[in-house]
Amino acid sequence: MTLPSTHDVALAAERRTAARLLLAHPLVTSDGPHADLFPLIRRHAEWLGKRFQQVLGYRLLVDSSYARLFKAGLGAGAGHRLERSTGTPFTPHTYACLALALSVLVTAPEQMLLSQLVADVRAAAADAGIELEGTERAAGKRTLVAALRQLVEWGVLIETEGHVTALAQEAGGEALITVDRELARVVVAGPLAQSQDGADLVRRAADPGFGGPRTYVRRMLVETPVVLLDELTDAERDWLRTRQRREAQAFSELLGLETEIRAEGVALVDPEEELTDLHLPGTGTVAQAALLLVERLVERLRPQEPGHPATGGSLVIGVAVPDGLVDELLAELVAEYGQRSNWQRGYLEDPPALRVAVLDLLTRMRLMAPARPLRAEGEGLPEGYVAQAPEGRLVTDVRGARPAGGGWVLLAAAARYATHVTVRPATTAGRSAGAQQELPL
């Protein structure tokens, strides 16, 4: 066996570093936060472009001053949301302001006053029939500022004199801004010219094209925390089952990711913990409460004797959460940890808000999912309920009684956050039932 040379190892490491950076930050500029690695992207631009296109169907554009990886998305309800500096997610109104600002900036002068940009955004909204009257009030101004701050972060806007936050001042401050029209043109990744409306744009952007199931499943693997086999179509599931070992090697070489393959699905794990916009464990009230909640849910709800397809049983990918259990456990956690862990006072005084924030994080981490009742007739699925997955896909095979009014499902991947694992002797040839097998991922 011939070992790779030092040059080959260094070359592969450089390409992997550049690929990881683009996957985590699809817009990299020569003078931005990752300017030190921009020359690496330019050096390997041709190789990176071919690999991203072959593996994920993503297009890479590398210019003298920026590199843009055009990701395709996974469809409605599966996007990586933008957030304000406070961690508050963008509202539809904020996204509307962002889109309107981009529509103005692609033809804007190189420099302009902040007040002129705001006036142009309002004019564009009027032309598009979008209501933006709220921009005259404090809340509306803060929403527009959030959109403009995102453009500053991307490098589309440069605050030459003053700051865009001046817009939110009571007296209505002014600022001089410089516009990078080229960056404004490449921010939107979807096929705008071919799309009839926003929903059509999202659908077209997620279309894997000639790559079909292969490309779509690969995108799910790198863009979501966990891919459950039950949420895939028959064609996607068959492809993944026959290729998962080979794909694991490919993702290790391209992105340095480790693959966990379990009965319920597949997860790509980053040992460096860089390629994620979600962290659990994490800092802050919501992340701490979410970790403690999922630990206790796993302890309470772990099935006792699950079956397995290999032994004639059914594959269990989730456990029904009894009505009221989430509220009960969160109340216990607030009483036990709230004060001594300095949790945010707003959440301590507003338990429903804490509940919403915690469940939102666990849902995005693919550890929990909202349950949706099924109709016994007309859907082609057994009577009962399912866990709702991104893009309207359904995760079926859920153990336990159906929650009233929908409720929640604890998914298999939550088991990795169990406080302890017990392994019992195998009861059937080739089978060992324990915590890792009950909720394996």
From TrEMBL:
It holds the Pfam family DUF2398. InterPro entries: CHP02678, RNA3'_term_phos_cycl-like_CS. NCBIfam families: TIGR02678 family protein. This is TIGR02678 family protein.
